[in-house]
Amino acid sequence: MNEEGLRDERAPLPEITRVRAPNPGPLTLDGTNTYVVRDGDQAWVIDPGPRDAGHLAAVEEAAGLARGVRPAGVLVTHRHDDHIEAAGTLRRRLENRGGTQVPLWAADPAAVPGSRIPPGRLDGDRGTLGHVIHLPGHTADSIALLVVGGRLLVGDTLLGGSSTVIVPPDGSLGDFLQSLRVLRALCMDGRISEILPGHGEAFSSPPAALAAIEQAIEHRLARVEQVRAARARGALTMPRLLREVYGPDLAPELREGAEWNLRAAIEHLSGPE
């Protein structure tokens, strides 16, 4: 690798394997997606997920440590437990298996013991693996990894099959919309070929990725207008707002996420024009 981390154009693109954690639920959908990115004989783990023995064993298998692949780092996309709970445990296991220190990166090191702020670019033996992008909104510390070739490991900024929950004050709808606009610009510039979310299925082509981003922006703006109109009609309590915006048949398991998204919309409406 040269000093600038430039990648040999003849080198094959990194391989990405999804390992889905066994933690399904209303907010995690089918479970947390842990991603193993392999580049030559090096492997990086993105979002280790819950501290589940079977899941960690599957992550190690996907990393190929038994076949001589070296662990190169662990990156978490944001502070939520379903993404970070196993980070320290996995790091220790990787170090024990590989016999060398393994960096653990998080945008907010206080949320992940033993971690440090990631560099803007992750480099390996073959040069640049990918670039870390700051995408606040879902949480203040949300980041994504844009792997060379255009695949974006986006954490919970986008979900495959549901809308992202925003929990103020850590989460911010204004920041979230700005982050989506950044992703839209990257898509339109041809830099994103596929989006791999923290939960749900991938948006596996440039048109699908752009459509998902556009839909997320439109959905949030429409929700803000719904909340604005409901409040103008006198819906000022959370129970009434839930009925006005989501209707009378909102499933109980979806109520918590709906309440948080309404609070995020109210905070957004209360901000500076």
Automatic annotation (TrEMBL):
<protein>
    <submittedName>
        <fullName>MBL fold metallo-hydrolase</fullName>
    </submittedName>
</protein>
<dbReference type="InterPro" id="IPR036388">
    <property type="entry name" value="WH-like_DNA-bd_sf"/>
</dbReference>
<dbReference type="InterPro" id="IPR001279">
    <property type="entry name" value="Metallo-B-lactamas"/>
</dbReference>
<dbReference type="Pfam" id="PF00753">
    <property type="entry name" value="Lactamase_B"/>
</dbReference>
<dbReference type="InterPro" id="IPR050662">
    <property type="entry name" value="Sec-metab_biosynth-thioest"/>
</dbReference>
<dbReference type="InterPro" id="IPR036866">
    <property type="entry name" value="RibonucZ/Hydroxyglut_hydro"/>
</dbReference>
<feature type="domain" description="Metallo-beta-lactamase">
    <location>
        <begin position="31"/>
        <end position="199"/>
    </location>
</feature>
